[in-house]
Amino acid sequence: MENTQIELKTYRAELHLHTVLSPCAAVEMIPPLIIQEAEEKGINLIAVSDHNAIENISAVMQAAHGTTVTVLPAMELQTREEIHSLCLFDTLEQITDFYDRLRPTFPEIRNNVDYFGEQFVVDATGDFVRREERLLITSSSLSLKDAWELTTDHGGLLIPAHINRSAFGLIPILGFIPKDIPLEVLEISHHINPEQARANYPQLTGYYLIQNGDAHQLSEIAGFNRFHIAEPSIAEFKLAFHRSAGRFHELIASQNAK
Question: Is CATH 3.20.20.140 the right assignment for the domain spanning 10-256?
Fold first, then answer.
């Protein structure tokens, strides 16, 4: 039998990144500038994760054509408990099916632009397509467990976001990490390192930690994650987190992530 060697590649990744669709994002967060910033920083893997919406993912993917940057579809979902989680997927088809199921769980509240900010859907060049009229920074009626199940059922990976942050963080809100949800990976904010996080929160023992810029402006695109994997995919991420089959993940210290 022929023994084929799988070629592993190194990806520097920013997996928590907002576009102008998120009302809290800067107007500079348009597809071509996001891709340009990533390339200039040596980041070759990003995940577009707007608040409770997916409409700008395709535009960023199109802007990345012909560049060194791979774009994964994602969303920052706010659950009933007001906990933020990254929902990562391999394909647009997966996240579109996921969103079709998720969409009815959000309240129909109109965005107040003067208070919350604009929510722009744009094309690959960053040109205006339309405004999203529904306020995106609201909570789904799904619980965190419901959200994990829905994400998993659609082939995705749910990662509670900035779990140590007082606003929308899992630990400050719940006070614990729920044992009835088989979470594998947790995101800590970029204001703390993994050693400090584990010292401050002993309940993190046994969980793998990632870190992102939670970028709402170009300067915040950080790329703290380095993956050694065959391809950017949920299956490969899981192998890397478990340091299996030669795959691995490591965090780049914030002060060295330039």
Answer: yes
Residues 6+ apart with CB under 8 A from 55: 21, 121, 132
Length of the chain: 258
Q: So where are the chain's domains?
A: 10-256
CA dihedral 240, 10, 192, 201 (to 10 degrees): 0
CB-CB neighbours of 40 under 10 Å? 10
Cα dihedral: 58, 224, 231, 25 (round 10)? -10
Q: Closest Cα partner for 42 from 12, 17, 9, 62? A: 12
φ/ψ of 228, rounded to 5, equals -115, 100
**What is the chain's pLDDT, residue by residue, as a tens digit (258 residues)?**
455 678 999 999 999 999 999 999 999 999 999 999 999 999 999 999 999 999 999 999 999 999 999 999 999 999 999 999 999 999 999 999 999 999 999 999 999 999 999 999 999 999 999 999 999 999 999 999 999 999 999 999 999 999 999 999 999 999 999 999 999 999 999 989 999 999 999 999 999 999 999 999 999 999 999 999 999 999 999 999 999 999 999 999 753 333
Token pair for 147: 């959200």
Looking at residue 257, what DSSP letter applies? Answer: -
